[in-house]
Amino acid sequence: MATVLVTTANGETGRPMVDRLIEEGFHVRAMVRTDDERAQRLRDKGAEVAFGSLLDFREVRAALKGVQRAYFNYPVGEGLVEAAVMFAQAAREQDLDLVVNMSHIQSRHDARSKATQNHWLSEQVFNWSGVPATHLRNGFFMQWLLYISGLIRYGRYVMPFNADSRFAPIAGSDIALTAAKIFTRPEEHAGGVYTLTGPVEYSHEELAAEVGRVLGRDLPFEQVTVTTFLELIGEPGDTAKLKHFEAVTIDQQEGRLAGVTDTAPRITGQSLQTVEEFVNEHRSRFELPYAVTTG
What we know:
alpha/beta; Rossmann fold; two-stranded parallel ribbon; 11 strands; 45% helix; Ergot_Alk_Oxidoreductase; NAD(P)-bd_dom_sf
C-alpha cells in the first residue's frame, strides 16, 4: 500500500487523518515540528514520524522522500505560498500520485483576507506544478467551539462575528475521513475542487442556542471585537489572525460561508457529525469539574 505524508499531524485534521489512513491500510508518515509526547502517540498508533518545518525546503524534501501521496495543510499565518511552492516542487520531484490541499471555502483571487487569498494562490501553485491535486475548500470547523470552551463553562458564548451570519460547521474528523477516502482513489479525485460543510447551517446566534440546549443551560450569544476575542482565547497580538478574522466577518456578511453541500457524505458514504454529537463527545471541555451552587 502507498505511503501518505500527513503534515500538521498533531492538528485538528491531521490527528484523525493518521487514524483514518491507517484504517484504510496506508503506511503513514506524520510530519510534526518537535519530538514530544504527541509525536510518541503518533508512533504508538503505528505512524512513522518525521520532523521538520514546511518552510524548510530540505526538511520538506526529506519528509516527502519515498512518499506517493500527501496531505498539505498550513495554519493561519505568514509563509503559506512559500510553503506551497516548496511542497509542490518536492512533490514533483517525487512524482506523487496526489496531493490533497487544505483551503478555504471562500478561496478567491480578490479575497480581503491575505490568508484566504494565499490559499487561492496555493491552489494555483499546485495546479501549475503538474502534481495531481485535490483542493478541499472548508468552512468553519466545529473545533471553534473548543477554542471558547473555557468561556462556555462559565455561561459565555463569545465570537467576533455577527449574530446572524450563517455557516455550516464541520468536524475536523469528517474532513480527515473525506481526505482518507480521496487518497484511496487518487485517479478519481485528482483535479477536484470540493467544498466541504457540515450537515446543518446555523447563524452564530442559533449555534449558541444549540450548544446551550445540548448542555442544558442558557448560553446567549455575545459579540466582541476581534482584538478582545484573541485576548479571551489566549492569543493576543496575533496580527495574522486579527486581520484574517476581521476579513472573515465581512465574508460572512456577504454570505460566502453560507450553505450546505453533500460532498463529504457522498465521498465517505457516512453521515456527518452533528453539533450535538460533537458537544457530547467533548462534554468535559464545556462543563466545570465541580457543581456550582448559589447562596
